[in-house]
Amino acid sequence: MRKIIYSFGVILALSIASCTDFVDPTIPYNNFDTGVYLRTLVAPSPSFNFFALGASEFKVTVEAVDIEDGKLVRDVEVFVARRRVQTVTPEVKIGTIAAADFQPHTLTLPDVHPPSGSKYPAATFTIGIAAVLQAMGMTEADINGGDFFEFRLLLNTTDGRTFTNTNLSPDISGGLYYRSPFFYRIPVVCPSSLAGTYDLSTVGWCGNSYTGRARIVVDPIVNTSYILQVDLDGTFVDDFSLGSYRVCYGAATAPPGSAAGLRLNDACGQISFNTAGSSPWGDQFFLEEVTVAGSVLTLKVRSSWDTGGGVFEGGTATLTRTDGTNWPPLRL
């Protein structure tokens, strides 16, 4: 019986010890090396518009977090490169964030403790893409839709260390708490905004004119691919001749539609028909000319069918916007 009581006393003593908040270990935690990271408070734009590249800018706000409340930052260097598929240009330096640029702030983020803005300083770096291209020795002509700008931050500390995207762990770069990638890859995109209803005037190959309304409808599968429709007899009908079939063949002839797969494609402002069979007889349709003058878009359309003497089905169509805006830059 005495043996049972003794065992119970040992268990009770162990239980009490295990409830202690902290037991000073033999590991010297105070000698651990600590790093510095840059928490992203305001992220850069998720993309750059290819058609307004000169007006775009790279802007990021970062918070310096270290054991000395941000005082270990000497400066932050900012670099950029252009990526095209797997080819990346050499990096160039486009600026420096000085230690003095890191100041107290009031920005707050969820899921961060201590709350952002309560103790760590932050700085904002901004540079226009025109200046970026100049530093890279490039012009807008050197940038294509689908390219990427890759911005990298390199933090130099007062004790001679450096931190960037190549010497950090995934939780630091992408974690909800740390948000410190040191690297931002921003795509150059080509938003397409052709969809809408417009005034239409078309001169067909036979010399007759059609006046009415046309609309450009987004393909439900690909948002840079479109179907052309014309208001014929009060109903919008797929018509890639833009009314020329109606004025040259009459109402009894079906216009070239989209059932066979014909679409108007927009590849960063370069528009064309994919040349699938599109007329009721399988003839193909092509764009021969594209002209933009403010709110007026002129398309010269031709089919593969020679009506005689080298005169092909088709016509010249003018689509005019009435919403007070202009067409984006478009070309053949």
Count of helical regions:
4
CATH class of the largest domain equals: Mainly Beta
Order of helices and strands: HEEEEEEEHEEHEEEEEHEEEEE
Gyration radius, rounded: 32 Å
State mean pLDDT (0 to 100 scale): 86
Estimated structural class: mainly beta
**Unreliable stretches covering 5 or more consecutive residues:** 1-32
Structure characterization notes:
The chain is 11% helix and 40% strand. With 332 residues, the protein is mainly β. It has two domains: 35-189, Immunoglobulin-like, CATH 2.60.40.1940; 196-320, Quinohemoprotein amine dehydrogenase alpha subunit, domain 2 (Lipocalin, Beta Barrel). A hairpin with a 6-residue loop joins strand 12 (209-218) and strand 13. It is elongated, with a radius of gyration of 32 Å.
Summarize the structure.
The protein is built from four helices and 19 strands. Strand 4 and strand 5 form a beta hairpin. It has helices at residues 2-18, 129-136, 170-174, 244-249, and strands at 37-42, 48-49, 57-65, 73-84, 87-88, 92-98, 122-128, 148-157, 162-163, 183-189, 196-204, 209-218, 225-232, 235-238, 264-267, 270-273, 285-293, 296-306, 312-320.
Write the layout of secondary structure elements.
Elements: H1 2-18, E1 37-42, E2 48-49, E3 57-65, E4 73-84, E5 87-88, E6 92-98, E7 122-128, H2 129-136, E8 148-157, E9 162-163, H3 170-174, E10 183-189, E11 196-204, E12 209-218, E13 225-232, E14 235-238, H4 244-249, E15 264-267, E16 270-273, E17 285-293, E18 296-306, E19 312-320
